[in-house]
Specification:
The complex is a heterodimer.
Chain A (H helix, E strand, L loop, with lengths): L3 H4 L1 H17 L7 H12 L8 H6 L7 E2 L5 E2 L1 H10 L5 E2 L16 H35 L11 E4 L3 H30 L1 H4 L1 H33 L7 H9 L17 H25 L7 H29 L6 H7 L1 E3 H7 L1 H9 L16 E2 L1
Chain B lengths: L3 E5 L9 H10 L9 E5 L7 E5 L8 H5 L5 E3 L5 E3 L9 H5 L35 H7 L11 H4 L6 E5 H15 L8 H4 L3
Antiparallel strand pairs in B: 1-6, 2-3, 4-5
Chain lengths: 377, 194
């Protein structure tokens, strides 16, 4: 942002003074002056012009100067301060809470982190999420809810076991809490402080931070459980998935593409949860437990990864929540009661329905309807 | 109004850490927290240099810019202070600060950060000047008493200078003229780029 000249304003002033002063004190300063006088005299050609150029170059230009890797003369002091500006660390006896790089005098990464977080990350995430909400609202206004073509049959088949539903809602509730508290930390200063005032927002943000930090690892457990529970069923099946994509997933146009237990859209969301969600959890853990000596650079990167991936996940989640609730008739019922209408199964997951209804279970000995068979409710 | 600045003269600092101790004592900062630290470059090697560093009270303070609860404020003297009643201990100011100034007392299990603590230039906080609450949260308000930060006032070699930036720069300039060598206003290009 700042020009070099602007940045170095106090230095420039002092450098000018130094230049003047160096001339004045050249004869007084024991170590520094004479050496400078020598090198200054050489190019002026006061009787030493006959010295071969090579020899002049080999002479130490100033006391204490050393050669760098390229054989050029450098001022080691200048090197020290350059390295300090570049984040070179030193020794410090002081024990602080500043992590393992407390010997670093100037850490420059923070400014990049600040610019990225306050700038493009907040802007793209904020407008991006609003854009997703807008697209969903526009789609709902134009198309409305995707209805069951033949209405409800009144027969249901089991789709989600109690364990599956528990893992889903456990992860979902944590996700919503983490999303709201995380968004509060990113946007609260601009959106909530004007509404609540600083004190009330800070009180809320204190709780938000605590909830976010303490619940985050438990969300990780949910993601892991989801991966174990549904990972195999969400492996991509190229032929089926390509056909589903070509048909626009039933969202665009009229057709209802064939799908197994999970369609391509669900599979994509699943892998977003597992992979992107997993990365969000991993980066969150780096920030959550700062006592393992992480450097500031590590935490700056972890934070950027965390916020960018979390926002991407949130965009997908908005779509998932839409389709799972008002966007598609009969979907929510499955995750609430565990059973879906047969007509819903035929319309959205025909291959899966064929699969579960093809193999007739052994005849009921107890008179109870065995799991997997259509059942009147 | 004066623009308050710190300047550490690397040609004078002898790494005695008295500034660290003085700060800790004067402000009674929490256990494990050091608002100031001395860093020695090339320690044990000829030409080693030491620098005492704390919050530089930057002109365009990164901590202020990233704080999610907007708890920082800058005084007319250019001092960057914060309100511990608002701070939630998120650590963002620590990510953003180039000088590693923000510190956090470990408040509870799992490394949770407490409310941020940092150098106040001995200027306290938003509470009434010299009040009990102000001292408890932020330490001594020497500025309100017409005094400068204790770290600089009691520096035995006068390596650490604190006060009106123009006066500080003038003192340092005279030193450089006297002793020769290059001026090294360490950290100023970062903290005071204007």
């Amino acid at each position: 942002m700042n020009t070099v000249a602007k940045r170095e304003h106090p230095l420039v002033l002092l450098a000018l003074c130094w230049g003047l002063a160096a001339g004045l004190v050249m004869g007084l300063d024991g170590g520094f002056g004479p050496a400078r006088a020598e090198t200054a005299a050489a190019p002026a050609g006061q009787g030493t012009a006959a010295a071969p150029a090579g020899e002049a170059q080999d002479a130490v230009p100033h006391p204490g100067w050393t050669r760098d890797a390229d054989g050029k003369w450098v001022n080691p002091r200048a090197r020290t301060w350059r390295e300090v500006r570049e984040g070179y660390g030193g020794y410090t006896a002081v024990v602080g809470t500043a992590g393992d790089d407390k010997g670093v005098l100037i850490q420059n990464g923070g400014e990049n982190w600040r610019q990225l977080r306050n700038g493009p990350v907040a802007a793209v995430a904020g407008w991006g999420l609003l854009g997703v909400v807008g697209i969903l609202a526009a789609y709902f206004a134009l198309r409305g809810s995707v209805r069951l073509d033949h209405g409800r049959s009144g027969l249901t088949v089991p789709r989600w076991s109690a364990v599956s539903r528990f893992i889903h809602w456990y992860t979902a509730v944590l996700f919503v809490v983490l999303a709201l508290t995380g968004l509060s930390l990113l946007f609260g200063r601009h959106l909530l402080i004007p509404l609540l005032g600083k004190s009330a927002f800070a009180a809320y943000a204190g709780f938000a931070k605590a909830f976010h930090n303490y619940l985050g690892p438990f969300f990780g457990v949910g993601v892991l459980a989801l991966a174990l529970a549904w990972g195999r069923a969400n492996l991509f099946a190229p032929r089926e998935d390509v056909a589903w994509i070509k048909a626009g997933g039933g969202l665009v146009g009229k057709g209802h593409p064939s799908a197994g237990r999970f369609n391509f859209g669900e599979k994509t969301w699943f892998w977003v949860v597992v992979l992107v969600g997993g990365a969000v959890v991993a980066s969150g853990l780096v920030l959550d437990f700062p006592q393992f000596g992480q450097t500031r650079q590590t935490m700056q990167w972890a934070h950027l990864v965390h916020v960018v991936l979390a926002m991407a996940m949130l965009a997908f989640a908005l779509g998932h929540i839409y389709i799972g609730s008002i966007g598609s008739e009969g979907s929510l019922q499955g995750m609430v009661t565990g059973r879906v209408d047969v007509n819903w199964a035929k319309q959205h997951h025909d291959l899966w329905y064929d699969e579960i209804s093809a193999e007739p279970p052994p005849p009921p000995a107890t008179g109870r309807t065995p799991p997997g068979r259509p059942q009147r409710v | 109004m004066a623009r308050m600045k710190f300047l550490c003269d690397a040609e004078r600092c002898i790494e005695c850490n008295a500034c660290v101790t003085a700060c800790k004592n004067e402000n009674e900062v929490p256990w494990g927290v050091n608002r100031r630290r001395v860093v020695t470059l090339d320690d044990g090697v000829p030409g080693e240099k030491s620098i005492s560093v704390a919050c530089m009270h930057c002109s365009d303070a990164p901590c202020m810019a990233v704080c999610p609860v907007d708890c920082f404020y800058q005084t007319a003297d250019g001092l960057v202070l914060h309100d511990k009643d608002l701070c939630i201990g998120c650590g963002y100011c620590f990510y953003a600060c180039p000088f590693g100034a923000p510190q956090y007392p470990q408040k509870s299990a799992f490394g949770t950060r407490g409310k941020m603590d940092k150098c106040t230039f001995c200027a306290g906080g938003p509470e009434a000047d010299g009040s009990e609450e102000e001292f408890h949260k932020y330490g001594r308000n020497r500025i309100a008493e017409g005094k400068l930060p204790l770290c600089a006032e009691m520096c035995s070699t006068k390596a650490l200078l604190a006060g009106d930036g123009d006066v500080v720069a003038d003192i340092f300039r005279k030193r450089v003229i006297q002793r020769g060598g290059r001026p090294q206003t360490w950290g100023w290009d970062k903290a005071y780029p204007e």
